[in-house]
Amino acid sequence: MLLAVAAGWFLVLGMRFVVPAVLPTIREEFVISNAEAGLAVTVLWLTYAAVQFPAGVLIDRIGERTLLVAAALLSGVGLLGYFFAPVFSLFLIATGAFGFGTGLYGPTRGTALSRTFDAREGTAFGVVMAAGSLGAAVLPAVAAFVTTRYGWRLALASAAPLFMLVAGALWLSVSDRPSDESERSLRQDLRTVLTGFHNRRLVLSVSGKTLMLFAFQAVTAFLTTYLVTVRGISQGTAGALLSVLFVGGALSQTATGRLADRYGTPSVLTAVALVSTVPLVLIPSVRGVVPLAVVSGLIGVRMSVGPLANAYIVDTLPDAAEGTGWGLLRTGFFAISSLGSTAVGLLADQNLFAVAFYGLAALTLLAAGTFVALPRRDRL
Where is the Major facilitator superfamily (MFS) profile domain (predicted)? Predict the structure, then answer.
């Protein structure tokens, strides 16, 4: 079951970052500004965010198995839409369709792991998120190669059959939770969830997660574009540097999951946020491919926040409406963070890339301040 869920996240996260990886080519073909390119990435994350709450509601009613399979199938179908995107407006529609499909996967994956691996969920989340990081490292590089030979539309759509295979694996391996939908209503679930939202631990952890995700979404959306248009680096090299970022994320997630189980989630979250501030400050001044590769790998360390904060938040939510609460929260922090790429795009059009990176560093430092106030989960 863990392997099937991890394989799905490998594809979901990896294909979400194929668009930023080939964004310079897409900008050139459609003749669009940085702000418009940023809007495309915002659409991807915003549609992903929009379905989080409905997915969470459905988790508590039909279970994880059906939703995970549906998410994989819809994601595969959504990728095929890029074949029919000769103009930018249709490209946005295809992007939104794919975002909608992948949006079903995130919250369902989280509650399935929390329910199945209760004693070692930090490690389980770490393994799955590391698989996603590897997908984000490998798939953009593969897509860049396919784009060079056959075009970016085929590079995106060719992943659809893999999603279908994962759907079959999920159907065979994931068990459903018992459903008591006849005795509960959405209003009751929302009342339970909103009561839980008064929890100070939940407010702090969600706030820190949102700040980190906003900066992550923004920097990954425009790193390749910055390297190509400002630094004069080839798209192939820039894409490789983006891959290094996700390799760093995969390595750090594997390690920090075990550290959190041993030393406590808040301490590790704080350390990750502090370390993640440094590479954002260094991006505008570092020269040379090797130093940039080191900085890219350090940027990836911030991805460790994902599995750690997710496990902490899910564990803090009321058990009676865990899926509903998790989906509602994910809609909130993904919707807010989706604006990161548009914000950076607007600054980039004013030749303020450096200001954008410094601003993201400041938000990361603020996130560290929220994490340091969190209590250990064994003291909840």
Answer: 1-379
